[in-house]
Design goal:
Strand content: 15-25%
CATH class of one domain: Alpha Beta
Strand order of the largest sheet: 2-1-10-9-11-12-13-14-15
Shape: globular
CATH topology of one domain: Rossmann fold
Mean pLDDT: 93
């Protein structure tokens, strides 16, 4: 690294890809991105708010209680002391965090960074084998976990999941009354802490992809990256202020939630409603009860809440954000018709840390993801990397202040980064005005009888049918056509006892889009396979289809 690292443990630096395989990182396109060479992002996001006199402002609402910024700072500082003095953490050590969305999870997140550690957060629903994969890849020897979800964490951290042989790791519980629990260890610690003198280029977190295409990949992001996403999407597209109360459904281990429910509100002195169980029914009840103004969730949740709006008051909301998968135009239009709110769509990637294409307000065009946000560039290219003219479908590439750096995976790094650009794996077309229109994941383009068919386009057509609640489309091998389109359809409850005829659905699609795109095979299912963050896993449908 060009600047002296603050890390004693050099694991992250040793396992970054070679510099020549990094994407081009542009920090000069916006004045807000001119960060100092020595930077600990915890200080900018937390300490600075208290130091400027806003310590008594609310940072979290949680189960009827309230945490102030000072409460969060005090807890984070005490935990940082525990990490360094009792648990032997040195700068550069990776620390696993596992919990539902709670204030204590946030306090642990900041404490690890204050101590110079590297945060590795895991979804609460992951099982021991999945946790063990993360632990082994990131060489983690310490975990802080909510006591209520500790069992699987201990199984992964303390024993080899294949042989049950003991491992030399440690797990510390919080939300625990044990004398060895984190709260007990914090009790006698001071509420001040000298933050580790990290470089802006030191790795702050390793985020693992959510597994939409198979085995999760570790992506490495620096202290500079953490601030950059707040000063691009949040500052220029979302534009929150200190009066906003954020809410949402994804877990903080998902980088979409890390930004939307922690980093973005804190960067602007706002607050967050922490919800442990944020299914659509729970989320819409919380919106009515606590009156948040900004909501971060996925298209599936907006679709689900549409059917509940007659029973709940969501009028406090002024901005809604959707990401994780493409936002279908029918969902956008139905939500706007019902609430008056134009959902802010966006595409991001764990490799990029957060959203890099989006639009807000009157700049939104229904069905389009938006334009490259300030600080980023995006383009559509062919397989060789040659830019394509507006209107042509190709591969999406992006570059800006954040970018892909895989943990110890040169082969995948070469595949994701091409000539300084991050190639996201999405097929898009760009119009004359610079708006990007999602077509499919690159591996979800179905070639049938020489025609290119985008799976999401067929899904969007099916979703406008009154009996269809959810659907997923894949391509099946076919000896005559090369591939055919198959749709998996989840019906609305009202249609399950009397499902529509398959031919009726096929004819409906033919009337909505070009007839050659219709699903030649349709299967009714109860649920669709999704990741913990709600992303559709089409590869599991392919694996399960003979």
């Amino acid at each position: 690294m060009s600047e002296r690292s603050g890390h004693v443990d050099t694991f992250c630096a040793d396992n970054l890809p070679p510099r020549e395989l990094w994407p081009q990182m542009d920090y000069g396109s916006l004045p807000d991105l001119a960060y100092p060479a020595r930077l600990n992002c915890a200080a900018d996001l937390l300490d600075s708010v208290v130091n400027c006199g806003r310590g008594d402002a609310t940072v979290f609402l949680y189960e009827g209680s309230r945490w102030t910024y000072r409460d969060l700072l005090d807890a984070a500082n005490q935990i940082a002391h525990v990490l360094v003095e009792d648990l032997g953490v040195v700068p550069g050590n990776r620390v696993l965090l596992r919990a539902p969305n709670t204030p204590m999870l946030a306090a642990c997140w900041f404490a690890v960074l204050k101590a110079g550690g590297v945060v590795v957060s895991t979804m609460p629903l992951l099982r021991p084998r999945e946790i063990a994969y993360t632990v082994d890849r990131a060489r983690i020897s310490l975990a802080l976990t909510d006591s209520r979800v500790a069992e699987d964490c201990e199984r992964a951290m303390l024993t080899d999941v294949s042989t049950d042989a003991p491992k030399g790791a440690r797990v510390v519980h919080f939300n625990s009354e044990s004398r060895n629990g984190l709260e007990s260890l914090m009790h006698s610690k001071p509420t001040t802490f000298d933050n580790c003198d990290t470089s802006a280029e030191d790795v702050a977190l390793i985020a693992f992809t959510s597994g939409t295409t198979g085995r999760a990949k570790g992506t490495m992001h620096t202290h500079r990256d953490v601030l950059a996403i707040t000063d691009c999407f949040a500052r220029y597209i979302l534009k929150p202020d200190a009066s906003d109360l954020f809410c949402g459904s994804p877990p903080l281990a998902f980088t979409y939630a890390l930004g939307g429910l922690l980093l973005f509100p804190m960067r602007f002195g706002a607050s967050t409603l922490m919800l442990e169980q944020a299914s659509p029914p729970n989320l819409i009840r919380a919106i009515q009860k606590y009156r948040p103004t900004v909501c971060f969730t996925a298209p599936t949740a907006y679709r689900a809440m549409l059917g509940m709006l007659s029973d709940f008051d969501v009028s406090s909301l002024r901005k809604c954000v959707s990401a994780g998968e493409t936002l279908p135009a029918p969902t956008f239009e139905a939500w706007e018709a019902a609430t008056g709110i134009r959902i802010i769509d966006g595409i991001g990637a764990t490799e990029m840390l957060h959203i890099f294409i989006s639009a807000c307000g009157d700049d939104i065009r229904a069905g389009s993801t938006g334009r490259a946000i300030p600080g980023y560039e995006a383009r559509v290219v062919d397989e060789s990397g040659t830019p394509l003219p507006p209107g042509e479908i190709g591969l999406l590439e992006v570059r800006g202040p954040t970018g892909c750096r895989y943990l110890d995976d040169v082969e995948r790094q070469r595949a994701y980064v091409r000539d300084g650009w991050n190639r996201t794996g999405d097929s898009y077309r760009m119009d004359e005005d610079g708006y990007f229109w999602y077509q499919a994941r690159s591996d979800d383009m179905i070639v049938s009888s020489g025609y290119n068919i985008a799976a999401p386009e067929v899904e969007n057509a099916l979703l406008t049918h009154p009996d269809v609640h959810e659907c997923a489309v894949i391509g099946l091998p076919d000896s005559e056509r090369g591939s055919i389109v198959k749709a998996f359809v989840v019906l609305h409850p009202h249609a399950r006892d009397n499902p529509p005829a398959i031919k009726a659905l096929q004819d409906y699609v033919k009337a909505e889009i070009a007839p050659y795109k219709y699903p030649r095979a349709i299967e009714f299912v109860d649920t669709l396979p999704r990741t913990d963050t709600g992303k559709l896993q089409r590869f599991r449908l392919r694996e399960a289809t003979p």
